[in-house]
Input
Amino acid sequence: MSESLFDTPAPRLFTLPPQADFLRSIARRLRLEFNVETCPDALTHVLILTPTRRAAKALGDAFAEEAGNGVALLPMIRPLGDIDVDDPPFEPGELAGIAPPAVSASRRRFELARLILAKEAVLGREIGIGGALALAEPLGALLDDLATEDVTDFSVLDEALQEYLPADRREAVEFLNIVGTIWPMRLEELGLVDSAARRSIVLGALVERWDRQAPSHPVLVVGSTGSIPAARDVMRCVAQLPQGAVVLPGFDWDADDKAWAHIDDSHPQWAMQAFVNDFGIHRKQVGQWLGSAEPATARARRRVIAESLRPAKATDDWLARVEQLKQQYGDDYFARGLDGLSLIEAPDLLAEARLCALLLRETLDTPGKTAILVTPDRGLARRVAAEMDRFGVRLDDSGGAALSETHAGAFLLRLLDVAEDAGSVVALSALWGSPLFAAGSERGLVHGVLGKFEAEALRGVRPGRDLASVRARLDGKYVNLFDNDRAAIEAILTQMQAALAPLEPDEQRPAAVWAERHARAAEALASSAEREGAVRLWAGEGGDAAAGVLRELLGETESLPPMRLFEYAGAFRELVRARRVPPRLGVHPRLQVLGPLEARLIGADRIVLAGLNEGVWPAGLGVDPWLSAGMRKALDLGAPERRHGLAAHDFAQLACGAEVFLTRATKADGAPTVASRWVWRLKTLVEGAMGRDAAARALKPATDYAAIARDLNAPGLGPKPAPKPEPRPPVAARPRRLSITEIRTWVRDPYSIYARRILGIDRLDPADMPIDARERGTALHDALHEAFENWLDVLPEDAEAQLVEVSRRHLVKAGFAPEELVVEVPRFARAARWLVDWERARRAEGITIAKLEIKGELTLDVPGGDWVLNGRSDRFDRHRDGRIDIIDYKTGGAATPKEVASGFDPQLPLTAAMARESGTFRDFSGEPAGLYYVRLPGNAVGGVETRIDSTKSTPSAAEMADQAIADLREWINRFDNEAEPYLSQPRAKYVNDYGDYDHLARRGEWASAPGGSDEGGET
Output
């Protein structure tokens, strides 16, 4: 071998160009350096420190792949920030006691939440345990930053406190001073230490040991930029060891002097510049990693990206720099630098996801080719994964899915929703719909019977506030079930009541007690006829993570105060929301979705950098609830812009790949987006160097992926509105029986009768509907019927009070809550006052109540065969001459006399016509005297009587009854003709924008199409 890695004088600093396969280059060179072919175990004494665990694993894989079929004895590979004191390079017990175990992230979060709760209690504010946990997360991150920078003194903020800090920031600093005192004491009591502080302690001990006595084995630090002070100290130490070396990723050794001098915290090179400057050496003294010659095209790309990210203060001579590069390397230098780099702008987020999925899928057409998608946008990553499903490919997503999105996590959350509100049909449906819910039965049976029960018995206004009210819906009034199905539902509800009984909402218990009860209830309801609940619930990707959350609640929450169920539920939701579950099985081996941190040092044949918009990549600075940007600078925590610098380094490294696609969405949620500063700078640079048109051509991919992605969902035909439906079912299928109220629907919207009575489609109410006009009207009718049934002969003196009390009972029965009764009872009291006065006036005229809530049925002899009209009348009153009034109560609006006389609301006239026929209503008949709507809105007036007949614009009641029956016969005969269609709301004046069957009739398509409106229809 012509030259050796350790032949050069210290400090030994190397770099690998961005386009090189960083980890494979390290592995290949070290195998040559230590002559592994001859000495297979030579590497086992080499220690390599990497920046992340993922990089450590990937480096091990690279060594194994380089070995091929030979022996692969690996070096010691350790993540720089997570060295165990009992593993090499330390001897067992060598540093015992110097670094206590690190506090787990969950325990620290619970402990900090306790402090936050105490603070809020002192200030007289309610935040809840879930809110405290949410604040504990950024507080923990701040403590890590303080430990990393070794900051313990907040006194530097005193002057700032006096001058300009707002009240919330003063409060935060006072609290941080308290935490700075109490937290170390609590950690000492627990025998633990913060992970960041432990890292600094361990790395400091390592540096002290190696400064005192150099290790006898080679040590390399690879891929770290030195942004963490303790890690930078290790790198400084290793670079000067006799057998030590540091390999920097993508160090810009050939930057011009002006750019180098103006590097700031937001620049990709800031951390490595600071590290190199510590040695007092020139940047060009950083050597190239042996055997890693940089091709001319790769160097051109690196230079173009570096120039696009040039420090802002050094861009005043950007054009001069462009000309200098052209003179030095040729006029086509920028075109060569952009070869293999493409920019694709999608119209929206979904289109960007589809585009990224297409780029990944195309990779698989080339055997052995690999691709990675890198984005910090978890939403975009999920959308890409969903788009890949169309290709039957499951992605290896390093970020994984939220635990709440897994079967186990969702099941545990839904169980808490039911425990908090057992009468909620929405919560019950969600729980019953989980594939884990079985409640001791066979899952298929459970799904079937509960689905029917929920759809037919539980929709509309919620049944009540507990499972007993849900069980009451099995009484046969709401749903018809086979005996076996009813028994199965009974058994399921019994199992649920037993499982949920310990989760009593009003009790106060420690979090660990709630967690145990939560787990036991979940296991009981997850059990099936074939398998125990624990096996079904805790197995799989989400099950293991969910069990981990519950273990934390069981074993690490003793510091939290006792809580009620809703507080425990809030804490559990917060923990589940933050927990990520990466996929384990079924992922494609050649595709990965990575965050920028995970992608460091990871290479692939094709790289897709997605989500390149401001606020996404780079991420916005956000709002720290504890320290503002100025306060962080005052504490010497480093400017927030340093995160942008690290992100810029990640981007620069990845953008130098051989085949790279940059993607962004021009709109998000309907609003325009701003391109990432890096994309904007790149476009600005190349447009200045090449001209706008040439730059656009250079950045445009050879294949129009955006058009292909757009065509993936294109139907192939232009949009064509659906025609107006004109169903003409056979006469034999058409209804021969309708109710009086359905006649109004039949006249105004025949299609609704077709859908309901011929197709058999019933409207499905939403679940958990609020109690409203329909329930109020039902309660009113029931109350009036009960009261007046007892007052047929004599109206009591206290009729008004009795009527109000009866109405209260029926409102409660209808489901009105106590707080709602405060509004409803006074409303009905006003209506009752008016109604009693009205009733007394009628009785004074000799008019008496004849029948209440009576049902009737009239058979019409028509050419097509017998046709039955049925209905129920609210009230019939008898005059002294034997004639009758037909009265209908209304709590809302009522039809006008003109609408009734025109035949568009024939309820009262048809009722009058039925009452004229003997035998239609049992033991009752009579000639009509008047048709009345009695409206009882309960407003200031209380009620209104509206007479429909015998007005200036309407005929007598008898004439209206005759006309209504004649119109009905004509309408029946019309629809007894098979050529007559059931049209959707054909009458322009009576179009209802909220018809139950408008969606089925597709009115939204044809009614808005040219020529498709209802104008000019029947009137």
Observations:
- The chain has 39 helices and 22 strands.
- The chain has a mean pLDDT of 88.
